[in-house]
Amino acid sequence: MTDETPPKPPSAEPPRKRMVRAPTRGGDSGRGESVKVKTSKRRTMSSNSWLARQLNDPFVTLAKAKGYRARAAFKLTEIDDRFHLIHRGVRVVDLGCAPGGWLQVCVERGASHIAGVDLLPIDPVPPAHILEMDFTDPDCGPRLLALLGGPPDLILSDMAPNTTGHRETDHLRIVGLIDAAIDFTIDSLKPGGSFVAKAFQGAGTSEVLGRLRRHFAKVNYVKPKASRQDSSELFLVATGFKGR
């Protein structure tokens, strides 16, 4: 899909369970028996639901098989297969990089210099440089660029705030993080470079798109197969940075 037609909001119908098997080349057509989770007094109902979803998610299974730290790695691989953003010699910044799945993809696909940041501690992903700090700290941007050794060709943002449970508040907070990532991108990205950010459907997203369209040749909406269909999550892919 392109920037002309935003994806429709997720259906109100309950999500279908996915089978515990790797996705087939034709998509999710393969079927198997779903894994049922035994109830436990030690787990809440929401914990049981999360566990059942994880056990029946084919991308969780495939991530374990391929050695990725998170199913989110497949979101980036699908985006990169389509837009060809990561290749040998590129410099990449990964904002909100825990637990390291996107860093693994960048290394695997030949990025020469990689710097990531997250509030959470992350096990090393050589040769990537990782900072454990708040991206909104004014010192963070300069430190990332120093570790990178030059202006980035690609800036990735999988950042998401801690949720409050209030939908409008949570949406405004994610938009605030995207805006901060765009500020950093405009100040540091190499001309012709690209920017990828996780977003969620909502009113504030249109303002973010307006900013990106002023600075990039093309902006696309992407809903990777690895994004759960009941989630409002989508990714903004901006290519052809025009410079400041």
Can you offer a commentary on this structure?
It is a single chain. With 244 residues, the chain is of the alpha/beta class. The chain has helices at residues 45-55, 58-66, 73-83, 101-108, 140-148, 167-188, 204-215, and strands at 91-95, 113-118, 129-132, 154-157, 194-200, 216-222, 233-241. The chain has a 7-stranded mixed β-sheet with strand order 3-2-1-4-5-7-6, sandwiched between helices. Strand 4 (154-157), helix 6 (167-188) and strand 5 (194-200) form a beta-alpha-beta unit. The longest helix is centred in the C-terminal third of the chain and has 22 residues, at 167-188.
Short descriptors:
single chain, 244 residues, alpha/beta, 7 helices, 7 strands
Write the layout of secondary structure elements.
Layout: H1 45-55, H2 58-66, H3 73-83, E1 91-95, H4 101-108, E2 113-118, E3 129-132, H5 140-148, E4 154-157, H6 167-188, E5 194-200, H7 204-215, E6 216-222, E7 233-241
Parallel strand pairs: 1-2, 1-4, 2-3, 4-5
Antiparallel strand pairs: 5-7, 6-7
